[in-house]
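Students often ask why we bother encoding 3D structure as a string. The short answer is that it lets us treat folding as translation between two languages. Here is a chain of 136 residues written in the first language.
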Amino acid sequence: MPLVPRPPWEPLEIPPGPDPATLTEFQVLAAGDTAQLERATDQAGLDVAWLDEARSTSETAVNVLGLDTAAGAIELDAMGKETACDPTDAKLIKAAEQDAELLAASNDAVEAGGELPAAPATAPAALVRLPAAPVS
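And here it is in the second language, the structure alphabet:
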């Protein structure tokens, strides 16, 4: 049988994507990194769960703080109304006026007797008012 020469063929093009003949090798190599990836994914899931719990706890704390602030403002307002109705200031002012009148009368009597008048007393500490702190 005579030999027939082979026709010249063009080289085959390499198809895009992974080579199906070596695809199992890629899967084996990827499986080697899967354990680390799974650990990282699990840790990320735990971090997200912890963050959600911390967010929930902080929201509760902020709500409680808001309620406490509102209750404190109501109580402070009630205390202000109570002190506005307190007659103690008027009584102290009237007593200080009476003390000033008695001092003036005694000084007049002392001067009439030829002695030096007494020095005026300082205002009682209860009459000294400090400026109120602004309430926000």
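Translate back mentally: The chain is about 65% helix and 0% strand. Keep this in mind for the problem set.
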